Amino acid sequence: MLFLKRLVTILVMVYLLLALLFIFSPAARDTFASAIGLATELSAFYNTLFIVAVVLLALQLITENLDSALLRRSVAQQEGKVNELKARLYDQQMELRERDFQQRPGVATGTTTYPDQPLTGPTPAAPTRDESTRPMFPQQDPSLSNAPLTKPNSIIPPTAPDAENRAGR
Predict the structure, then answer these.
(1) Predicted local distance difference test score (pLDDT) of residue 82
(2) Is 52 domain-assigned?
């Protein structure tokens, strides 16, 4: 296909150079027209030149479209291969993760396991009411309030729970 495409491109270039020569050099046009037997009528010569141009243009369009279609098909095949390889890699990674997960000691799927020995040392005290309402992360921004949930933001007033609103009306 590439050979045909290059051949058509070369023919189009040669034709373009000859047509420019015939247009700009009347002596070359008359000599060539008499060589192919069209010296009597200039309109017949240009008509023949036009027909050859149409044929070459059609041939070039056909080869370009065929080449483009073949390249698109090739790209689609390559993308399919890439997707297939990605899927295989994903499957292999998932199998490897599953094997690693199953080989870990003390870990069972779907259940929580505890160590055989009880924890030693002091048990943590239950959080007080004030500690449970504090956020678990430090807030660095001074514009953020650190107020507990029992004191809602004064900008947004709380709405009273309404039985009608809960019914979905």
Answers:
(1) 96
(2) yes
Cα–Cα dist 44/37, whole Å = 10
Enumerate residues 6+ apart whose C-beta is below 8 A from 46. Answer: none
**CA separation for the pair 98, 106 (Å, rounded):** 15
15 closest CA partner among 55, 65, 64: 55
| Whole-model pTM over 0.70 | no
| Residue 131 covered by a domain | no
Specify whether the CB–CB gap between 90 and 98 falls below 8 A.
Answer: no
For 65, the domain range is: 2-74
Q: Judge whether 16 lies within some domain.
A: yes
Whole-number Cα distances in Å, 154 to 134, 147, 150: 18, 11, 12
